[in-house]
Amino acid sequence: MSVEFLVASAIGVMTAAGIYLALRGRTFSVVLGLAMLSYAINAFLFSMGRLVIDQPPIWSADAATYTDPLPQALVLTAIVIAFGMTALVVVLALRAYLETGTDHVDGLPDDGGQHPDAGDEV
Amino acid sequence: MNLILAPILLPAVIGAFLLLRTPRLTRLGRYVSLGAMLVQLGIAVALFALAADGTIRTYALGDWVAPFGIVLVLERLSALMVLVTNILAAAVMLHAVLTDLDRRGWHFHPLFQFQLLGLSGAFLTGDLFNLFVFFEILLIASYGLMLHGQGSERLQAGVQYVVVNLVGSTVFLVAVGLLYGVTGTLNMADMAVRIANAPAQDQALLRTGAQVLIAVFALKAALLPLHLWLPRAYANTSAPVAALFAILTKVGVYSILRTTTLMFGEDAGAAAWAPAGWMLPAALVSLTIGFVGLVAARRLRGLAAFAVIGSTGTLLASMALFTPASVAAAIYYLPHSTFASAMLFLVADCVARARGPLDDRLEAGARFAGMGQISLLFLLTAVALVGLPPLAGFIGKLMILSATAEADAAPWIWSAILGTTFLAMIGFARAGSALFWKSAGEPQSNPTAGKAATLPAWGIFAVLVALAALAGPATRFAEATAQQLFAREAYIGAVLQPELPQGSDRP
Question: What protein family is recorded (chain A) (predicted)?
Fold first, then answer.
């Protein structure tokens, strides 16, 4: 089995799981889904520099070829941003749960009734 | 040309300073923030005056030569967007200070400065990944601003807003990754050259990347069917913040315009005019949905949120033809629609403050203090947003109609724009009569309503009047901007070969 197949299928499975979880109705699974999506995207970005094994990224005296260093820098940026955003969305979801008493993304209470707050209309 | 860096550098420094303890806890922060805002407005005017001569100026960060380093590019469109952003932000900040909104939480001013940093950066950058980073900065600041003041509805709407935009950012990265994987560059000018010379086996990937990229921008611009996040988010945040957010959808519009004309133009092979196929129908439907929602809204802020969708739809409907004339019409209409929807949010805030417990619900209540002035402001905003004669909305819509008259889709565009103009008129008449006409009873005094809080709305109105009064120079500028967008060789040359005379002022 080639590395390409492994990486590609891992990205595919993680993206599918991430999308499924992000579409769920509770904030906890949505947060998990977002995290999983961002993992998938990081691996995807990394592989966009082509999968090269055992080659230096910047410079080496005895290297014949190099791997692309730029996607690694991009992934680093993306990881930092995704990490910060996941922290934010966790705090936000927790705060919304404590304020409204439900962890449903639509703010509907668990008995399926109307939103307790009529001011929700736009 | 170091001034190009100023709209990014200044808010970054000021925003970081405002996070310190003393400016955060005392009124010092407010004055520093207001002062910095004025300086930024001055810089934006200076940049606009610089760009008006048609030269494309670049600034290579760290003096790394493009395409290896990140470049900032100043030309007519980006200068216009920076100017619009700063005028709007100045009015919004003044409103927030006058109404004491900035004292309802700890971090209003730092977040506001970072919002400005992200917006200016997104308009000025010439690098696709850098565009992503500035998008993230402006989004992170917008999350904070949106939640400013808190309350359970705002938190609920905030969770949805944040989640939608996080998914959007993820998809943005997919598009950037695809385009980088094919072209091997992130500099937009360099990418444009490489897309034009891409081999046949890469065409499918390029087209996919282009479509995904434009879809992300369409999400930011709230183009149907990606508009569902907007009404709830904008209607549940504080009105001045929503007024500032009127520019956020225009970031999406700007990015579509920039990437499509630069990278996915005539010679881009399979990716040529990538969004042209689906953007027009989507824009026409979102224009219709926006104004139908405007008629159905039950709160003034909800009405304003749908007005944002409708006016962005109008812009995109004109842009979707991608002819110089239709793009010029959209560019002329863009500042007007931004300012008019922001003004409506500010007026909604005045109404809500003056009416107290009734808030901005479109229900008749008691008369309130300052009603004459606020109702006049509402009338003027309605005239601007509907597009009735004396103001620039009318000229803008007329330009859009005449620019699209030759197109095959002209009957669709004309009937959608004219029909929704009528719908908007009904919606505003209904809202205005409920708020002002039917109100009865003794005026109630409300201590929270400051008289001067209408000043920023009048300021925006003055800009709208100026746009109409100076319609001649403004339309000439819009036409020149559109021509500059379509003459992309000059842009590419200025970025990639800055030593040529067309390029920057670098030695």
Answer: Belongs to the CPA3 antiporters (TC 2.A.63) subunit C family.
**With bands split at pLDDT 50, 70 and 90, how would you rate the model's confidence at B113?**
very high
Of the candidates B507, B502, B354, the one whose C-alpha atom is nearest the C-alpha of residue B57 is B502
Is the confidence at residue B120, as pLDDT, over 90?
yes
pLDDT in tens, A54-89: 888 777 888 788 888 888 888 998 899 888 888 988
CB contact under 8 A, B155 and A27: no
Contacts 24+ apart (CB under 8 A), B79-82: B79/B44, B79/B47, B79/B48, B79/B50, B79/B51, B79/B52, B80/B48, B80/B51, B80/B331, B80/B334, B80/B335, B80/B477, B80/B481, B81/B123, B81/B250, B81/B254, B82/B7, B82/B44, B82/B47, B82/B48, B82/B119, B82/B120, B82/B123, B82/B124
Interchain CB contact of A17 with B (< 8 Å):
no
Asked if pLDDT for residue A19 goes beyond 90, the answer is yes
B181 touches chain A (CB under 8 A): yes
DSSP string, B194-208: HHHT--GGGHHHHHH
Q: Which positions in chain B touch A44 (Cβ < 8 Å)?
A: 173-174, 177
Q: What is the pLDDT of residues B182-204, one digit of tens each?
A: 888 889 989 888 888 888 888 88
The answer to whether residues B486 and B125 touch, using CB atoms and an 8 Å cutoff, is no
Q: Which of B145, B153, B159, B234 is the best mutation test for A, with the most CBs of A within 10 A?
A: B159
The reported pTM is: 0.90
Q: b/e for B256-289, b at 16 or more Cβ within 10 A? A: bbbbbbbbbbeebbbbbbbbeeebbebbbbbbbb
Q: Quick check: B252 pLDDT over 60?
A: yes
**Nearest residue in chain A measured CA to CA from B185:** A70
* Residue whose C-alpha is closest to residue B457's, from B352, B348, B375, B346: B346
Residues of B in contact with A107 (CB under 8 A): 152-153, 156
In total, the C-beta contacts within 8 angstroms joining chain A to chain B are: 103
| Under 8 Å between Cβ of B271 and B203 | yes
* Burial (Cβ within 10 Å: 0-12, 13-18, ≥19) of residue B171: middle
**pLDDT band for position A21 (50/70/90)?**
very high
Instruction: Determine whether the interchain pair B298/A122 forms a contact, defined as Cβ–Cβ distance below 8 Å.
Output: yes
- The rounded percent of chain B whose pLDDT value lies above 70 is 95
Q: Is B177 in CB contact (< 8 Å) with chain A?
A: yes
Question: Which chain A residue is nearest to residue B301, measuring alpha carbons?
Answer: A122
pLDDT digits (tens, 9 = 90+) for B36-86: 999 999 999 999 998 888 888 888 888 888 788 889 999 899 999 999 999
DSSP B187: B
Decide if B362 contacts B304 (C-beta within 8 A): no
Confidence at residue B204, expressed as pLDDT on a 0 to 100 scale: 87
